[in-house]
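Lab notebook, page 48
Experiment: co-folding of the full assembly
Goal: obtain a model of how the components sit together before planning crosslinking
Operator: M.T.
Materials (sequences as entered):
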Amino acid sequence: MKKLINDPRAVVAESLEGFGMAHHDLVKVHADPAYVTRRDAPVSGKVSLVSGGGSGHEPLHSGYVGRGMLDAAVPGAVFTSPTPDQILPAITNTDSGAGVLLIVKNYTGDILNFETAAELAQAEGIDVKSVVVNDDVAVEDSLYTAGRRGVGGTVLVERIAGAAAERGDSLDAVTSLAERVNAGVRSMGVALSACTVPHAGEPSFDLAENEIELGVGIHGEPGRRRMPMAPADAITDQLLEPILSDLGAGSGERVLLFVNGMGGTPLSELYIVYRHAAKLLADRGLHVERSLVGNYITALEMQGASITVLKLDDEMIDLWDSPVHTAALRWGV
Amino acid sequence: MKKLINDPRAVVAESLEGFGMAHHDLVKVHADPAYVTRRDAPVSGKVSLVSGGGSGHEPLHSGYVGRGMLDAAVPGAVFTSPTPDQILPAITNTDSGAGVLLIVKNYTGDILNFETAAELAQAEGIDVKSVVVNDDVAVEDSLYTAGRRGVGGTVLVERIAGAAAERGDSLDAVTSLAERVNAGVRSMGVALSACTVPHAGEPSFDLAENEIELGVGIHGEPGRRRMPMAPADAITDQLLEPILSDLGAGSGERVLLFVNGMGGTPLSELYIVYRHAAKLLADRGLHVERSLVGNYITALEMQGASITVLKLDDEMIDLWDSPVHTAALRWGV
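Observation: model returned without errors.
Model output:
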């Protein structure tokens, strides 16, 4: 496995440094401990949103730091939770006094370390709340998770809760909105190939020449089952069916359809998945009001995709459409 | 090679259909012959910009159709030039009477087919001009090219000329600006892996386990030479040196630095390349005024990257910053 890296142990630090150089108008990259904040943090009177997790899922989370989304992102080592000593300054240095909401993907290490940091920040008098994202319908428990994993829905929680914080909502209001988004979002993914953690140097799992992993996690952890390679439409059926039956969306409801690339899949293939998924949703009488197609939460260079469906209401649509200015998501500004 | 596709012969049509569904607010996708236009085309009084080429380089060109960039994109089969009967309606249906500029990457088939379409459109009384983009410093002639190939610089020509057309510049003015951008831009790429054309089913070339192709083309065609895998910084040196010596940019000049992924490379690795490239430019006394990092002109799922450097002046910076609203590039709106 060839990678455009120098020292495998320096991947996260060097990548963050480059990210900070390319987007110095937007973000400030802190080293030792590593975290990324909005250049203008703390924003007076605004609830701060802090997220983070293992690296290797870029643009998540650093790519979502900026107006209308996150105030800080905390990147761990590749596929490894960030530590409390990284998370704590991300909280304290973005809090304006209005409180901080932590957006945590449901992985055991993340839960533990964000919780520890939250307690330390609370001890300093900061009002901290948390929302745990657990949108992956593939498996109930997994290698790194008790309960469902947090995947693509995280991007949507960060955007919509981020928009609410930007318009001045209180910590309680932003938290309850984030929980509402999480309650109405479901995802499932598929891997066509494995991915290789730089310092490991070997693929994290093996797939045969004609095999795919249905319900794969964003670290390559096992999903529901392996199956022979199939046409894109058949795979899309198998991803969308569990999402819809779990979500329980009924005819006439409005949804956001998010087709996400795992990192190594061409955009053209994501649109082939989108095409069939949108048709299936229309067949069920659902209205696709908003959509997102691209590499937004990845697993290094894994080939594959995930589908995320979010039930929308008027408020969520307004917040989705409001201005956002981050490295990876931008409109209206 | 597993791909998220159905019928290999239907890849372009199905992908375009999905693209049109996801971005119906922005574009209109035409079938038989296939081309993509701005939803609001023709835009009264505005010079129309039309580009195109083989598919497989997404988001190029369809992802750049919209306000402040292209009026139409014409996708050929994968890695195959579009035909004159596709290009002609893209011209005639976007011309508002102000004339049409064709932005053509320098590949023999593209040149020929855009030229034929231009002559047919001129016979219908439409004012048509062309600019040929040839920014790749890697090789002088190549498998599909007499002279230098057109690569990453194409994105920058489309954006800056598109902004000039949007502000109401004449066909002559937009054409001369596009030529000025092309004259001041240079690129070079590297492949860490090959890519597989869907209907071919086999990789278009072979690279050994520890080998990379320096100066690779966006169809996987040969570059300058093969070399053993090296650290990202050393590869970046080898890409940037030929660009800078050919461009002849001197200390104090302002540039745009564009680090592009070939499709299968994680964003985190592109920022590692950006980091070193930006440092090298600073060492030469160049000012990186604007930057772009991501998958903007790809070669299917190829792993690799390209670097593009454009000399900037005040007018180009203003045009670059002006509002753009396409599927793949958006700001200010």
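Interpretation: The two ends of chain A are 39 Å apart (CA to CA).
Next step: discuss with group before ordering constructs.
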